[in-house]
Write a structure and sequence with these properties.
CATH architecture of the largest domain: 2-Layer Sandwich
Number of helices: 15
CATH superfamily of the largest domain: Nucleotide cyclase, GGDEF domain
Bound molecules: zinc ion
Radius of gyration: 27 Å
Distance between the termini: 67 Å
Number of strands: 23
Strand content: 25-35%
Helix content: 25-40%
Shape: elongated
């Protein structure tokens, strides 16, 4: 039995024959580039495995040493990889700069960090294991661009079309490119070091030779755009690094812009942190103690058991213990099935996270049903859940040796749970107004009741509403939510650039979903 075969056996045990078989086929039959920086979401779509199954399969495979996991910081402007590492701990800069886009970005785990998987060298040797031997187009495709850029089938031909000239430059070497500069915006770019020079070629054509020096070093100094006239250009390139460089002169026209604008969903660090398999496998070693990473949007769900003290009194500690354990098990299964993860349990309460509000809402509805079934089995209403959901920005941190979350969104979610009555689901406006969540509610035929509520300890976010017969209370809160918006700088002569945009969205109307088993005062 080869080493790879001996590693696939425990993988089958961990994730089942179907998922393990799909990965084994990929390793055996896939082309080299298909085994480098694999997006688990792409693989899920291609193999027919569900996304959660594919993510779990790659996580277990990485744990077994079949694949290597990589956390890559992406440029939201061009989709290039600004930094890659085996651990999230290396995402430690307040800002990442992209030379190609001439822009800096504050990293967020939902928009700027992808997680990919590359086959391990001892399982199968692929070309990308030696990136310095990859030809230019393959280097750009496999190393420079992230899995979030939807590179077309004819990528190699396209790169050739937009490339005026290119040279492979060993460490410490110099080269001279002689070319005819067309009246276009040109970018001299090395995808290895990200060294960049913008050339704005316009005006009267000239016959005189224009000279330009382009130095490749690790300094990443931002270059001013150089104005040139159409005509002969002598470009002296100096590679002062200790790695091979691949400088090329690109035409920054529509073709390049279209290429950079092609996006597809990728496995984000946020999605992984809120995945139950990831939390189970990489329990404590995700973030450094002093690390705090921004997440633009995460959905928090808190549950608690109503009247657990009375329950313990009534049935005794032993029975209560088993019941509470059974309830935890069921909740954990539902959370995992809806792409979420249990962060912690506190007494009889659960704190869970989900990548999007609709998954949390779907989980909440299933939890309520499941508790109903357990109660029917026992012939008693022993397990009555109170559920609260809220979505918003937060920080991923390490607290008490556990990957946890910090911020007002977490506080609000917990307080919203505290408002929920027996068998009720309380969600804020941020959750129910999220379009997929609204759709889910419409499909289940459920109409949320709008209530205005004050949240203890959440200051300056409440407006008062008159109490009506059916207690119509609405809590209002405004939050600035910074969203990264991609904008191409106006006037096609300027390089692709990106900017942060500040969006204000009013939020948080607390909504409750009346229990199907009880009639509220409204009905
Ligand atoms: Zn960029």
């Amino acid at each position: 039995m080869s080493e790879a075969e001996s590693l696939f056996a425990p993988l089958r045990q961990a994730v089942g024959a179907e998922a393990a078989g799909a990965l084994e086929r990929l390793v055996r039959e896939g082309e080299d580039h298909e085994l480098n920086r694999i997006s688990a979401l792409d693989f899920a779509a291609r193999s027919g495995l569900g996304e959660e199954a594919a993510i779990a399969a790659f996580l277990h495979a990485a744990r077994l040493g079949l694949f290597e996991m990589s956390w890559n910081v992406l440029c939201p402007g061009c989709g290039g990889v600004l930094g890659a590492s085996a651990t999230l701990k290396s995402v430690d800069r307040a800002e990442y700069n992209c030379a190609l886009c001439a822009a800096g970005y504050e990293p967020t785990l939902d928009e700027m960090v992808e997680v990919t998987f590359t086959v391990s060298q001892r399982v199968r040797r692929i070309a990308a294991h030696d990136p310095n031997a990859l030809p230019m187009a393959e280097y750009a495709r496999q190393v420079f661009w992230s899995s979030g850029v939807d590179l077309p089938e004819n990528f190699a031909a396209l790169i050739e079309e937009i490339t005026l000239d290119a040279v492979e430059l060993p460490p410490g070497e110099k080269a001279i490119l002689s070319l005819q500069a067309p009246a276009e915006f040109l970018i001299v770019f090395d995808p290895v070091t990200h060294a960049t020079q913008f050339l704005d070629v316009q005006g009267e054509p000239t016959r005189e030779r224009q000279n330009l020096a382009f130095t490749i070093d690790k300094a990443h100094t931002p270059n001013e755009t150089v104005a040139l006239r159409p005509g002969p250009l002598r470009l002296a390139i100096d590679n002062r690094t200790d790695t091979r460089a691949l400088p090329a002169v690109w035409i920054a026209g529509d073709k390049l812009h279209d290429l950079l604008g092609r996006r597809k969903p990728f496995l984000t660090a946020k999605r992984l942190l809120t995945n139950q398999s990831f939390r189970d496998l990489y329990r404590t070693d995700t973030l450094d103690v002093d690390q705090r990473l921004k997440i633009t949007s995460l959905t928090f769900l808190f549950t608690d058991l109503k009247g657990s003290t009375e329950l313990y009194d009534r049935v005794g500690d032993l029975v209560a213990f088993d019941l509470v354990r059974a309830h935890f098990r069921v909740l954990q299964e539902i959370v995992a099935a809806e792409a979420g993860a249990v962060v912690k349990t506190i007494g009889d309460a659960v704190m869970a996270t989900f990548p999007t509000p609709d998954r949390a809402l779907a989980a909440a509805l299933r939890m309520r049903e499941a508790m109903g079934r357990l109660n029917v089995e026992r012939g008693r209403e022993d397990l009555l859940l109170k559920i609260g959901i809220h979505e918003g920005p937060c920080l991923a941190v390490t607290l008490n040796e556990r990957q946890d979350y910090f911020g007002q969104t977490v506080n609000i979610a917990s307080r919203v749970q505290g408002l929920a009555g027996s068998q009720a689901i309380f969600a804020t406006g941020a959750v129910v107004e999220h379009p997929p969540a609204t759709k889910l509610l419409a499909e289940t035929g459920m109409k949320p009741l709008v209530q205005r509520r004050a949240l203890r300890g959440v200051a300056d976010e409440l407006t008062h509403a008159p109490m009506r017969a059916h207690r119509r209370l609405v809590q209002r809160q405004r939050r600035h939510s910074r969203r990264v918006a991609r904008t191409w700088q106006a006037g096609a002569r300027v390089s692709p650039a990106a900017a942060h945009a500040c969006a204000t969205r009013p939020r948080a109307i607390v909504r409750s979903f009346p229990s199907p088993r009880r009639r509220g005062p409204h009905g």
